[in-house]
Write a structure and sequence with these properties.
It is a single chain. With 133 residues, the chain is mainly α. It contains 7 helices and no strands. Helix 2 runs antiparallel to helix 3, helix 2 packs parallel to helix 4 and helix 3 packs antiparallel against helix 4. It is elongated, with a radius of gyration of 25 Å.
């Protein structure tokens, strides 16, 4: 049924079917990722505002599709979420890994830039032989 609704372009109903009937946060996340629709993510976030298990599932499984800050700001004061600490630690570790990768890429690029600029300077300042034939 979800497949058919998605194929017919009724993504919102398909998402609600996954959420309400199946109660499967992982499948809902996968469906929203496949569709690439920001409105679906917004619907999923609205639905999860009062459901701790959905909030935790989103925190643990959402990558670059939505910002964790966007989800964290929606958590109401006083809402108890089991496993929230572990989910937040995982987000921070993933963020730290991403920063480390970016810094490594930056170091590689800086090294390549230096090598290539030195090679360019050498080529531009050196002479070359022309034969008169």
């Amino acid at each position: 049924m979800v497949f058919l609704l998605g194929r017919m372009g009724n993504n919102k109903k398909a998402l609600m079917l996954i959420i309400e009937r199946l109660g499967d946060v992982h499948r809902a996340i996968e469906f929203a990722k496949e569709q690439g629709d920001d409105d679906l993510w917004e619907d999923l976030l609205k639905y999860s505002e009062t459901r701790p298990t959905f909030i935790r599932g989103l925190l643990e499984n959402v990558g670059v599709e939505i910002s964790p800050i966007r989800l964290i700001r929606r958590i109401k004061n006083g809402l108890e979420i089991p496993g929230l600490k572990e989910a937040l630690i995982k987000i921070l570790q993933d963020f730290h890994l991403q920063i480390s990768l970016l810094e490594g890429c930056q170091a590689i690029m800086n090294s390549d830039i230096l090598d290539l600029s030195l090679q360019l300077q050498k080529n531009q300042t050196s002479g070359f032989f022309l034969s008169g034939e």
